[in-house]
Amino acid sequence: MIPSPLHLRVRTETWPLAKAFTISRGAKTEAHVVVAELTDGCHTGRGECVPYPRYGETVEEVATAIEALREAIADGLDRLGLQQALPAGAARNALDCAFWDLEAKRSKRPAHELAGIPTLRPLRTAYTISLGTPEAMAEAAGKAAATWPLLKIKLGADGDPARLAAVRRAAPAAELIVDANEGWTAENLAENLAACARYGVTLVEQPLPAAQDDALATIPHPVPVCADESAHDSGSLARLAGKYDAVNVKLDKTGGLTEALAMADRALQMGFFLMAGCMVSTSLAIAPALLIAQKARVVDLDGPLLLAKDRPHGLRYKDGLVYPAVAELWG
To answer: Structurally, what CATH architecture does the domain formed by 7-108 represent?
Structure first.
């Protein structure tokens, strides 16, 4: 039987946040996502991406890039061909994850089995504390720590040691990881890393701007340092050696689950350990990232928790854990 041509649907969505989310580059109150759907008339696969201005992406341009492949998809472009048709980034992520979802539904096999992962476990995920005053961050951390034993602390501004001290006093038993979002400098790097070690931080994510991270190769790491903005796909790994201890794999950077799986395996072979991260998004974007998270030492997949409301069949979060997606959502 000849398969029916695939039909592509693309839409943009806006999801209000429960409260403003602030990092070193600014604040946001909404998540803007692009959803791609592939249907053969019987089955539909979905994928969600989050265009990121830090990487020169806009919602409109990403949606247009996906739309441009409509004819090629109808003519038989598949997931493997997609890897050459689009570069790594948000647009390819939405389509790649839609292809995985469609393959799972057509084959009646879960996506994790198709990817060679025998089972998906519930995983402990970080919960993010936005950048703010020491007092505001301490209050947020104290409340969150009752449910979330792993807290991700957004830093990247003057006075970060004081913020860390306040958070640690408010959440003495929590495991802390820090994300500076490129907000530190070569001049304050040693001081800030020392503060992280003093307050029991277990990981520091992207302390320096990606274009200025050579200093990481010249100073000791009292706390493991993880590449985020410096790490995109497999091709970016070679320049991270000697500077970073870990790599944050995000589907919107790799351009989807296909490349994320390859990047994760290559990073592990090179001696990095893995962090599985996300943008602020709905559960549809997080579900495929849970496959990568099975390989990760640190999991940061709390995007839907920052929304005022998630989409139907959203992921289950309970007692610090995120649970695998139901088939109605993805995969």
So the answer is: 2-Layer Sandwich (3.30)
